Amino acid sequence: MAQALKKLSVQVLKNNNVDQIIGCSALRASSTWWCNVEMGPPDVILGISEAYKKDTNEKKVNLGVGAYRDDNGKPFILPSVQKAEEVIFKKKLNHEYAPIGGEAAYCQAVAELAFGCDSVMLKEKRNCTVQTLSGTGALRLGLEFIAKHYAKVPEVWMPAPTWGNHPQICNMLKLTHKQYRYYDAKTHGFDLKGALEDICKIPEGAIILLHACAHNPTGVDPKPEEWAQLSQAIKSRKLFPFFDMAYQGFATGDVDHDALAVRRFVQDGHQVTLAQSFAKNMGKKERRIIVGNDAILKLAN
Ligand SMILES: Cc1ncc(COP(=O)(O)O)c(C=O)c1O
């Protein structure tokens, strides 16, 4: 599947952007400043979007990017998001710098969304929440924090497979990353046995990356009782859980249910890091660069 998607995206790039790419390469070659810049790999998912746009089939459906669409396949803006934008616009807010850690009220609201309004950890103010540039920014900042300051084994263990940017970010930071078993291709389900076996062999003190819900790219999540087993295994192995929650509400339609794993781990006494994104569930993909307040990195204990 991954190979087929890659092939398709390469094909699309060839068909659509060949002139542009050749133009850029020529420019690069003639520049003494940038002659060492290498062409990056094609983005598989964006390649699918390009293929979708070109396809003339009336029944086409784009499953490449997780975004809301109306019955006509057009982008759908959530009424709540529209309303919030109107409120913000009417307030005529200034465009001054936010505090270095982000807007306090925003950080509090997103922390409650993740950990629950009744979270003891929040009530006791044991969390440290900062605003970042979307979910990718939160991952980057969290992992960079680990790369610089983590006192134990700075090795990040990721599910196999995982979102392509997880290993990329570690590579940029020169953080060792390895994989534990997650997806069972035979059952198309979660490989609990394989995951538990692998977790028991991860060096004590290492970091384990967990997709909180709607695992990307498989869509396969552990059941609540499986999360409970994972939590215990991770605790006995003294691993540090780093959650990536990019789809809260997308998996079951219930934001509280989708936060189950994160809340369970906190209740079980884990210290966790959580990278949160609102690009998908709020349908605010294009805004992430402009406002930079779609996501959050939490360092909770
Ligand atoms: C698992 C996962 N984490 C993080 C992100 C990044 O989210 P954002 O678009 O907010 O940077 C994505 C986006 O596709 C994702 O799938």
From TrEMBL:
Keyword Phosphoprotein: no
Subunit text: Homodimer.
Gene3D superfamilies: Aspartate Aminotransferase, domain 1 (3.90.1150.10), Type I PLP-dependent aspartate aminotransferase-like (Major domain) (3.40.640.10)
Protein name as annotated: Aspartate aminotransferase, mitochondrial
GO cellular component, one term: mitochondrion
Required cofactor(s): pyridoxal 5'-phosphate
Taxonomic lineage from the root: Eukaryota, Metazoa, Ecdysozoa, Arthropoda, Hexapoda
One Pfam family matching this protein: Aminotran_1_2
GO biological process: L-aspartate catabolic process
